[in-house]
């Protein structure tokens, strides 16, 4: 069922692209081919028909997308985020040891009887 809806999704997208390209634009792009179709679609030409057709195909695309999402979630109980393997670092980081007080040189002391202000 999911395969059928996926194929239908691609077909709907291609049909929407073609319908949008055939619509009249301000620069008349691919809409120039619709001049001969005026008698088939009415006095206005295919503008109203293609706009309605594109709207209906858009609604079908949205419904098909929702259906695909619903079916996929029912068949696959876990999400892609749950499939990601996270490596946990259980080892503790090495903390550098503090050197003993005998290894650290002492700071020279200033004699207290020295008069600094002269």
Automatic annotation (TrEMBL):
Q: Which GO terms describe its cellular component?
A: plasma membrane
Question: What topology does it adopt in the membrane?
Answer: Multi-pass membrane protein
List all Low complexity biased stretches.
Answer: 93-112
Localization, UniProt:
Cell membrane
InterPro entries reported in the protein's UniProt record:
SecG
One Pfam family named in its UniProt record: SecG
Listed under GO biological process in this entry are: intracellular protein transmembrane transport; protein secretion; protein transport by the Sec complex
The domain of life is Bacteria
Q: Where are the transmembrane segments?
A: 51-72
State the NCBIfam families in the record: secG (TIGR00810)
Please explain the role this protein plays, according to its UniProt record.
Involved in protein export. Participates in an early event of protein translocation.
- Tell me what this protein is called: Protein-export membrane protein SecG
Instruction: List the top taxonomic levels of the source.
Output: Bacteria, Pseudomonadati, Campylobacterota, Epsilonproteobacteria, Campylobacterales
């Amino acid at each position: 069922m999911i395969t059928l809806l996926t194929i239908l999704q691609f077909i709907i997208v291609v049909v929407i692209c073609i319908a949008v390209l055939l619509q009249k634009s301000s620069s008349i792009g691919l809409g120039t081919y619709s001049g001969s179709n005026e008698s088939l679609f009415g006095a206005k030409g295919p503008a109203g028909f293609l706009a309605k057709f594109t709207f209906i195909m858009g609604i079908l695309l949205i419904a098909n997308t929702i259906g695909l999402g619903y079916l996929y979630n029912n068949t696959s109980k876990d999400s892609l985020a749950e499939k990601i393997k996270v490596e946990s670092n259980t080892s503790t980081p090495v903390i550098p040891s503090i050197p003993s007080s005998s290894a650290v040189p002492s700071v020279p002391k200033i004699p207290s009887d020295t008069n600094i202000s002269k």
